[in-house]
């Protein structure tokens, strides 16, 4: 630690103490927090520049964790001091308590729970058998949302890659579909939810919801796959041909791996969009799912539970992104 | 010796932007004997790469004929190209890249990997067999590309400015290595290059081409004794020949540059 870093750290502490002792947090919270954050960024920057090479990774991980924690802390302070109305912006500790509440309690009216009470699983399975244990899964908001995302994603992505490949390789198909695809691509997918409700026999069932997710994923992946195939340097195709690859081998050894990076970019977009779309649909028409919980607690004005729902959505997003990144590294070790 | 490659009155015309035609190759004929190393030199845009692509079957001639005589073993591929941009697959390891041609021909895994490893060793990349192309340097990539072609054991090796993208020092080292490997294999080679020095150092014969349209301007036999090395460049015969070729080429280069300028002005 250099003298500079130490000085900034001391200033930061002094600044906070000054505000605390003088009682300025209430009237001048924006100044206190603003300067506090600026000092913190300066401090972190100095620390990062002077840290030895082997601690750089630790530094990055530490900062990536520390900053969100700091944000939550600031929120906590603002809410606790009633600078913002805690009824609408409850402090994170109360949101955490609400999340815990949602986790352990079973909603007897809706017959749901947030995570499906996994701790009951072993004894239920032993005492009442598979159907009862299975109902623990189906009562879960999180698993319901995940299932909708997953099912829709798979149903949309597989034909999306297929159609995108054909569009990439065949000019006729590409010219025919390009305009239509671009037009549908920009349509907010939630807007076709009513059509899907008309199409399915049970408009309130899972069918229309999964279908909208699938359609959103389909277009994103198809357009990216097409771009990926078109993007392949022709010299690789020439090399493939020159070394005797037939059509199938050319596809398997050159076109598919060549397009994979852009396909994966499409998959990432599609997964994010799938989550957005499903939460939006659950706001509008669902009796289960994280989106439903969030919107329900907004309607009954239990805001800490509404925020709890939003945090769960964020966690799901992070989880899904990481899973896809993991898959990407496994499938494309050459990147 | 029998002709391995026979090209007769090859023409290549492209439609130009203004609705006319550009003649890239005009009345181009060439015979290459079995085991001969032929270098083609010419100003940029003289159609030398076009000719190579036609030979490789990556492009078709507008008129004329090109044949590569098959060898005794009909399973052997007729030609393989070493591309200027390497064109080794980034998604395959060095080993899988070198084994690629064999894999496409249905050679079993054990056999093709053994052959590939042998060639990887001959180009000095043993330690890098499991690496992906982005982990190795440009010179190493071109070694992989050369090994990929040789492992496939084609009747004719076609090289399209293979060392053009490398820095001068790496280039020298690879010329030396390639000369050594060629002495061992004595393959029929058609080698496109910008560099007169490289052409004289490597080739048995140097074909000089003119630009717009591309046709043969002169043919030089290189009578520098083999095996050659970078030391051969110190021989008087070497500098004599490179100078003679340059005298012929200079006018072509100037003319080609002038035409390019004119085209730009007209636009």
Structural key phrases:
heterodimer, A: 335 residues, mainly alpha, MetI-like fold, 2 domains, 14 helices, 79% helix, 0% strand, globular, B: 267 residues, alpha/beta, six-stranded mixed beta sheet, three-stranded antiparallel beta sheet, 8 helices, 39% helix
Q: Can you walk through the features of this model?
A:
- With 335 residues, chain A is mostly helical.
- Chain A is built from 14 helices and no strands.
- In chain A, helix 5 packs antiparallel against helix 6, helix 8 (171-186) packs across helix 10 (206-231) and helix 11 packs across helix 12.
- Chain A is globular, with a radius of gyration of 26 Å.
- The two termini of chain A are 36 Å apart.
- Chain B has 267 residues and is an alpha/beta fold.
- Chain B has helices spanning 48-56, 94-98, 100-104, 109-122, 138-151, 168-185, 196-202, 236-266, and strands spanning 3-15, 21-33, 37-41, 63-68, 79-82, 156-160, 188-193, 205-210, 215-221.
- The model of chain B has no long low-confidence stretch (mean pLDDT 88).
- Classes of the chains: A mainly alpha (335), B alpha/beta (267).
- Chains A and B meet through helix 11 and helix 12 of A and strand 5 and helix 3 of B.
Write the layout of secondary structure elements.
The complex is a heterodimer of chains A (335) and B (267).
Chain A: H1 3-22, H2 25-50, H3 56-80, H4 92-104, H5 121-128, H6 130-138, H7 141-169, H8 171-186, H9 193-199, H10 206-231, H11 234-242, H12 247-284, H13 290-299, H14 303-331
Chain B: E1 3-15, E2 21-33, E3 37-41, H1 48-56, E4 63-68, E5 79-82, H2 94-98, H3 100-104, H4 109-122, H5 138-151, E6 156-160, H6 168-185, E7 188-193, H7 196-202, E8 205-210, E9 215-221, H8 236-266
Parallel strand pairs in B: 3-7, 3-8, 5-6, 6-7
Antiparallel strand pairs in B: 1-2, 1-4, 8-9
Helix pairs in contact in B: 4-5, 7-8
């Amino acid at each position: 630690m250099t003298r500079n870093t130490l000085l900034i750290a001391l200033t930061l502490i002094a600044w906070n103490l000054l505000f605390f002792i003088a009682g300025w947090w209430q009237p001048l919270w924006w100044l206190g927090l603003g300067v506090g954050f600026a000092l913190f960024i300066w401090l972190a920057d100095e620390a990062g520049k002077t840290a030895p090479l082997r601690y750089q990774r630790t530094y990055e991980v530490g900062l990536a964790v520390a900053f969100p924690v700091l944000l939550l802390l600031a929120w906590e302070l603002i809410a606790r001091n009633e600078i913002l109305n805690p009824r609408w912006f409850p402090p994170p500790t109360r949101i955490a308590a609400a999340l815990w509440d949602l986790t352990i309690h079973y909603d007897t009216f809706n017959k749901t729970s947030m995570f499906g009470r996994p701790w009951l699983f072993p004894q239920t399975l032993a005492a009442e058998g598979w159907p009862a244990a299975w109902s623990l899964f189906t009562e879960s908001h999180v698993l319901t949302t995940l299932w909708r995302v997953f099912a829709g994603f798979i149903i949309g992505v597989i034909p999306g890659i297929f159609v995108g490949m054909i569009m990439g390789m065949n000019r006729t198909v590409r010219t025919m579909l390009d305009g239509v695809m671009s037009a549908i691509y920009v349509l907010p997918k939630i807007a076709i939810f009513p059509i899907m409700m008309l199409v399915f026999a049970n408009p309130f069932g899972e069918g229309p919801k999964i279908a909208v997710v699938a359609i959103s994923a389909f277009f994103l992946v198809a357009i990216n796959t097409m771009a990926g195939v078109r993007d392949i340097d022709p010299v690789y195709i020439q090399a493939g041909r020159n070394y005797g690859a037939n059509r199938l081998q050319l596809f398997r050894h050159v076109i598919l791996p060549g397009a994979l990076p852009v396909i994966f970019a499409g998959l990432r977009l599609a997964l994010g969009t799938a989550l957005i779309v499903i939460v939006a649909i659950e706001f509008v028409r669902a009796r289960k799912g994280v989106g439903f919980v969030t919107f329900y607690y907004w309607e009954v004005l239990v805001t800490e539970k509404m925020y709890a729902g939003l945090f769960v959505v964020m966690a799901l997003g992070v989880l899904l992104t990481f899973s896809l990144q993991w898959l990407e590294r496994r499938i494309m070790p050459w990147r | 010796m029998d002709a391995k490659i026979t090209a007769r009155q090859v023409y290549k015309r492209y439609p130009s932007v203004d609705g006319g035609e550009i003649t890239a190759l005009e009345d181009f004929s060439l015979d290459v004997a079995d085991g001969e190393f032929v270098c083609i030199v010419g100003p940029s845009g003289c159609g030398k790469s076009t000719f190579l692509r036609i030979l490789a079957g990556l492009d078709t001639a507008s008129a004329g004929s090109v044949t590569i005589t098959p060898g005794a073993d009909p399973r052997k591929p007729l030609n393989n190209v070493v591309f200027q941009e390497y064109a080794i697959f980034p998604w395959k390891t060095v080993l899988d890249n070198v084994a690629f041609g064999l894999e496409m021909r249905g050679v079993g895994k054990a056999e093709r990997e053994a052959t590939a490893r042998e060639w990887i060793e001959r180009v000095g990349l043993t330690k890098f067999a499991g690496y992906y192309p982005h982990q190795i340097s440009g010179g190493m990539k071109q070694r992989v590309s050369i090994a990929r072609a040789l492992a496939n054991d084609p009747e004719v090796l076609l090289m399209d400015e293979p060392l053009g993208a490398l820095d001068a020092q790496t280039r020298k080292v690879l010329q030396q290595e390639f000369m050594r490997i060629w002495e061992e294999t004595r393959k029929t080679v058609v080698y496109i290059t910008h560099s007169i020095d490289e052409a004289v150092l490597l080739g048995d014969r140097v074909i000089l081409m003119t630009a717009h349209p591309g046709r043969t301007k002169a043919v030089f036999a290189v009578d520098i004794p083999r095996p050659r090395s970078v030391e051969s460049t110190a021989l008087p015969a070497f500098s004599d020949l490179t100078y003679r070729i340059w005298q012929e080429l200079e006018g072509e280069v100037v003319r080609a540059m002038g035409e390019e300028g004119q085209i730009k002005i007209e636009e």
